[in-house]
């Protein structure tokens, strides 16, 4: 039986004595819940009995007003006949990721967004806080997600901060958390090597960050990686071709792993990019932004020590696709299936990376990811092959040429084009 007036906030239902700073001077009781003044810590102690009769307590709020907000959330749980605060964070995450639940704006998860978000939680968030009780979650717990070792990349940290903010807000609204989201997120937005303060020093806080030449691997480094990758592949040519395609066609890794033989038009050197495989290796969706496009690859790659005249990519692609059914994947994993992203890194990318002596960070993590080769392709076509920003934008699948030029455009002047 619920207590009358439970829908009225605690501060309006009790006569509480507080000092001039808002700290409770003597305990107050509301049904089976009691709020005690701070003693050994600056936080109020809230004690209550669950719907099953178990005694629980938590430390919340430096002021009675803050403690009352936490008490209201607990009373809402008791009123609904549940005790979600006692459930693990796993349960809160499952509720947040429920693909059938209508979200803000009246929409549900898209397949692509849900798969990527679920992978992010599985890889970085649940191993750190998944087994915790929801009521025990603190801002320090969330900061630990950002600052875990090995450290996620700055871009991943940015995504993690966003997902954690949405998770705790959702958990607060659905009764898993009694601590206000803004209190839980204290320090989280500036935690980690990708923090706003650190990025400000690098000039990366706002807008699109420009890719500089020194941040990209050289043609010889790409050739080293291609040779190393060929040793990791059952079909020797396949590994080498994959690296050169990534570096000079602008495909994303998920698009490359979903590529079929029939997507290649060798007569025109065109690649019809109509789909991508997500991190799990079996979910196929449209490319990023649901934008199908046509990419192109060169006849030969730039000259290197391995191939002084350039790698004959056109010839290699004809050989790789000749007499193969159009529905087969061009770069399959075992049994002809698409690669799970984690397995691809473990069994192909990482061994080739180390074998090619590509650069590593101080913690032995890799400096470059496959996505850096997409940047190489953009710079190659825009500046070495002098193709228009519109053409390169279309090939990369950018929304407009502003994105292309903002990221890759500052490579010197082209005023010489006006010379007779």
Name the CATH superfamily classification of the largest domain. Answer: Intergrase catalytic core
CATH secondary-structure class of the largest domain? Mainly Alpha
Name the poorly predicted regions.
1-5, 194-207
* Dominant shape: elongated
Percentage of residues assigned to helices: 40-55%
H-E order: HEEEEHHHHHHHHHHEEEEEHHHHH
- What class do helices, strands and sheet pairing give? alpha+beta
CATH architectural type of the largest domain: Orthogonal Bundle
Distance between the termini: 90 Å
Tell me the major beta sheet: 4 strands, antiparallel
Number of helices: 16
* Total beta strands: 9
Mean pLDDT: 84
For the biggest β-sheet, the strand order reads 1-2-3-4
Number of domains: 3
Residues in β-strands, percent? 5-15%
Rg to the nearest angstrom? 28 Å
CATH topology of the largest domain: hpI Integrase, Chain A
Task: Tell me what you see in this structure.
It is a single chain. The chain has 420 residues and is α+β, with helices and mostly antiparallel strands. The protein has 3 domains: 10-82; 89-201, Orthogonal Bundle (DNA polymerase, domain 1); 214-408, hpI Integrase, Chain A, CATH 1.10.443. Helices cover 40% and strands 8% of the residues. Strands 1-2-3-4 form a 4-stranded antiparallel beta sheet. Strands 5-6-9 form a 3-stranded antiparallel beta sheet. Helix 4 packs across helix 5 (139-146), helix 9 (219-230) packs antiparallel against helix 10 (236-249) and helix 9 packs across helix 13. The protein starts with 9 loop residues before the first helix and ends in a 12-residue tail after the last helix. Mean pLDDT is 84; it is low at 1-5 and 194-207.
């Amino acid at each position: 039986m619920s207590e009358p007036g439970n829908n009225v906030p605690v501060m309006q239902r009790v006569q509480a004595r507080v000092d001039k700073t808002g700290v409770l001077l003597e305990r107050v009781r509301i049904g089976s819940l009691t709020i005690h003044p701070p003693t050994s810590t600056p936080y109020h102690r809230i004690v209550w009995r669950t719907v099953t009769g178990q005694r629980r307590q938590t430390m919340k709020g430096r002021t009675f007003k803050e403690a009352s907000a936490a008490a209201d959330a607990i009373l809402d749980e008791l009123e609904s006949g549940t005790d979600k605060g006692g459930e693990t964070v796993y349960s809160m995450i499952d509720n947040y990721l429920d693909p059938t639940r209508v979200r803000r704006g009246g929409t549900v998860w898209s397949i692509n967004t849900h798969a990527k978000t679920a992978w992010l939680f599985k890889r970085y968030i649940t191993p750190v806080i998944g087994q915790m009780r929801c009521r025990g979650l603190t801002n320090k717990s969330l900061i630990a997600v950002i600052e875990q070792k090995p450290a996620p990349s700055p871009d991943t940290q940015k995504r993690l901060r966003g997902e954690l903010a949405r998770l705790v807000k959702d958990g607060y609204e659905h009764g898993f958390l009694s601590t206000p989201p803004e209190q839980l997120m204290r320090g989280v937005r500036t935690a980690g090597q990708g923090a706003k303060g650190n990025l400000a020093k690098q000039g990366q806080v706002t807008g699109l960050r420009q890719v500089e030449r020194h941040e990209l691997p050289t043609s010889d480094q790409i050739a080293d990686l291609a040779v190393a990758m060929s040793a990791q592949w059952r079909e020797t040519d396949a590994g080498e071709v994959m690296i050169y395609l990534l570096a000079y066609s602008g495909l994303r890794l998920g698009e490359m792993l979903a590529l079929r033989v029939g997507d290649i038009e060798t007569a025109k050197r065109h690649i019809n990019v109509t789909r991508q495989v997500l991190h799990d290796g079996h979910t196929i969706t449209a490319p990023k932004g649901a934008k199908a496009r046509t990419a192109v690859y060169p006849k030969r790659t730039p000259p290197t020590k391995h191939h002084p005249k350039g790698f004959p990519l056109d010839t290699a692609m004809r050989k790789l696709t000749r007499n193969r059914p159009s529905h087969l994947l061009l770069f399959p994993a075992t049994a002809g299936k698409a690669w799970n992203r984690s397995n691809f890194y473990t069994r192909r990318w990482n061994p080739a990376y180390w074998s090619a002596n590509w650069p590593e960070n101080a913690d032995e993590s890799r400096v470059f990811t496959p996505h850096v080769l997409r940047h190489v392709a953009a710079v190659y076509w825009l500046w070495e092959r002098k193709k228009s920003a519109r053409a390169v934008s279309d090939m990369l699948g950018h929304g407009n040429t502003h994105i292309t030029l903002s990221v890759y455009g500052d490579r010197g002047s082209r005023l010489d084009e006006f010379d007779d």
